[in-house]
Hints:
This protein is α+β, with helices and mostly antiparallel strands. Helix content is 33%, strand content 22%. The protein has three domains: 10-203, Heat Shock Protein 90 (2-Layer Sandwich), CATH 3.30.565; 209-328, Ribosomal Protein S5, domain 2 (2-Layer Sandwich), CATH 3.30.230; 361-626, no CATH class.
Amino acid sequence: MLDIIQLLPDSIANQIAAGEVVQRPASVVKELLENSIDAEATQIQLIIREAGKTLIQVIDNGKGMSETDARMCFERHATSKIRTSDDLFKIRTMGFRGEAMASIAAVSQVELRTRRSTEELGTLVRIEASELKAQEAVSTMEGSNIQVKNLFFNVPARRNFLKSNPVEMRHIIEEFQRVALSNPKIAFTLYHNDAEIYNLPSGKLSRRIVDLFGKSYREQLASCEEETSFVTVHGFVGKPQFAKKTRGEQFFFANNRYIKNSYLNHAVMTSFEGLIPEGSHPFYVLFIEIDPVHIDINVHPTKTEIKFDDERTVYAIVQAAVRKAMSQHNLTPSLDFDTDVNYTNQFFSFSNTPFPSKMNGSESIGRTETTFSQPEPSPREKSNLTNWNKLYEGLNRSADDFDQQPKQQSGLDFGSDYQEQQPFTLKSKANDIADSRPQRTSQDSDATTFQIHNRYIISQVKSGMLLIDQRAAYERILYEKFAQHLQKNNGASQQLLFPSTIKLTSADFHLLVEIQDEIKNLGFDLSVIGHDSFIVNGIPADSPDENEQELIEGLLEQFKRNEAELHLDKAENLARAMAKRSAGRFGVSRLTNQEMNTLVEQLFASSTPSYSPSGDLTMKILGLAEMANLFLK
């Protein structure tokens, strides 16, 4: 019988290894940048075309390679970083496996030009799918210039799994930011399709943070430093008031290597406990310097996961360092007794239809005043209306209520009149000059629906009492409205009389470009004017009354949070993000009796009235028997 086990050819073995090392263009960027750092370069240039699918080029002024080294670097397990097994426990370089260049060459067309300072001529090496095409002497600059073209050209299945250009470019920027942060003394530049994205001069870590993430970070940086015989921690943490809803800018580096470690992240979060709202995440860039003997980085091919031999001690020192920074910089939040903690800047002035869909605008200052009408309920929504209406059978309203709404026979009577399109007016910024919101009257006080703490709505039903979480109810109603806009591509937009310009970080800019079509369907009217800037001509009619920059940044933050925690398509994610963002503002507003009744009506008319899109309860019925039991001994 013939033997069936055989040794795989190098080309196939390299393609298999590439599956772990080269997952997407960003993986190639990471490996090439780290090679330049190991070559002791002081200037590194990264050039990208078509989000790395067409070209990834890295040019550095490092030590360069000899003719033999230039050819050997593409062989598997060929490395200059280690010689013996003991070297694995003393690694201070970025690379050491000797797999990256071989894996990259197995799935792309690679051209390398390199020269050492002691030589007059350099070396040119061309490789396609692990096959050497050319090697010759050329005139080139000192250092290395490597081009990776047509990634996955010989593996069509892998190429088809790549995401859109904005998504892939966002991953490239994330890798670039990590490498640039850990090496502030190296000058970096990044170009995408001939447009300059970053130009980072060498300097201090604080300047590198500001250059990468924007000038606003200058105000929130607090230095953090703790030195012990076992480990040293240094870097910067953000002030509590700048904490975000997503874990966007959180970086740990162990011996200048970016790592992911949820345990150490918990150490930082506990240090901020009581200083930031629940669910918020602070900014931090923390470097851990430790003897390589105490860590193992040979855990995963990406080398972002490491193990500490005494993780508890590292945890305690990181926690102590962050707490020390908090106390030294007086970052404990101060109390302002003159500020009203309840959000009262109400954007909506409700009629019987609080969430509009049809626009008929007239000009005013800042934003135009717009009239809308309510869409016809679906069969499922009509069924919900009928079922919920039974809760109110037998409850009669006052004569004054009959005068105001003569066609309603109970607190929530959803007859055919509910489908009538009634006009609805949004308040413009000009009306904020004087508070024209209706005040509660004695008639409101006698109603069976009322509000407590500007947060909860209580309504009398035949079986007892209905308690509604105002924020969760808004989130459910707004979500269904935004989802409908995205499905039908008919989001209503408020045009701004004075368009505003917003500037985003590169990662957020590419994220916004990625979801640009869905954003437009929500009602945003945006125009790109640069590699990181937009002009805002209009915003959704149901948007909170706030600065356009804050609105879009908050929406992107919530979108990224959903993306990290849930597996949703772009439209679903965006509808949830916009609803949660808007509900946070509207959910703590004081409402008139008419507005409360309208909110309850629209909640009952939704497809899932009992729960918000995020799964929170929107309402709870407290029965008469249950209330009686509260007073029994």
